[in-house]
Amino acid sequence: MPELPEAEVVVNQLRDRVLGAVLKGCWVGRPDIVRQGLATLDWYRGASITTVQRRGKSVVLGCMREHETRYLLAELGMTGLLLFRLPDASYQKHTHLVLSLDGGLEPELRYWNPRRFGRLYLFDRTGLERFLAKRFGCDPLSVSWEQFQQLVKGRRGRLKALLMQQQKIAGIGNIYANEILYRARLHPYRTASRLKTQTIRRLYDVMREVLLDAIRDGGSSVRDFLAPDGTEGQYQERHLVYDKAGDPCPAKCGKTIRRLVGERSSFYCPTCQRRK
Ligand SMILES: [Zn+2]
Asked: What is the tens place of the pLDDT at every residue in 159-202?
């Protein structure tokens, strides 16, 4: 949390409100939050934001100055938020980056993260491309059916682990993996490589449907996710299994949702999602 839909909501608001703005100032509150490129921070002052993109669960700002583009990548981690703020708004504890802006619709963008999981990176183009190639697999919303099929068939491990492996498919975390698998009627521990083609097709369609629905609902506000303008997402109201152990299965099969404790908790219905 935040996962792909929440990052997409953030990106959409940034595009609407700060694309084209000039970075008047960049202030870093905690240097260790910047994992790469801290020494180049000064370069960004005076650059304008020319692109806003999502990569997996991360947000990438392209900043241009004198015909050169460099990038700021913000990982939202478990609890990271990018928030629009007025310059005179008091600084919340754990504000790690402040970008003061000129020419956009918002005077200030702040990166706030109470836990250390959030990270920032400053890259030139080559650095960004290398980082993305190493850490980010295909995007669930743009991966082709052929590519997805190959990915699933080539993987002997558990299906849920594959969906959450960012180097393979970037953007899905524990919440959406659980929701997708329940709706596709697949047990989280099914072996990926043993699924039939038609089953993989169902998973592919459901994956995209769930993520797009969640984006439309503004994401899920679990653990206090907020969009940059401070609005909460609504998709948590439509979660069917995530964090619902003990509740009756929404498909009314008569069973209750169970929880499997692994690296991350899995929530599933033992009847609707048979392990086989
Ligand atoms: Zn059920």
From this structure: 999 999 999 999 999 999 999 999 999 999 999 999 999 999 99
Distance CA 251, CA 20 (A): 47
CA of 239 to the centre of ligand 1 (A): 14
Residues annotated as part of the active site: 2-3, 57, 264
- How is domain 4-135 classified at the CATH fold level? N-terminal domain of MutM-like DNA repair proteins (3.20.190)
> Has domain 145-268 been given CATH number 1.10.1670.10?
no
Q: For the full predicted model, state whether its pTM sits above 0.85.
A: yes
**Cα–Cα nearest to 185, from 161, 201, 166:** 201
How many angstroms is it from 255 CA to the middle of ligand 1? 6
Domain borders along the chain are 4-135, 145-268
CA angle centred on 63, ends 57 and 66, rounded to 5°:
160
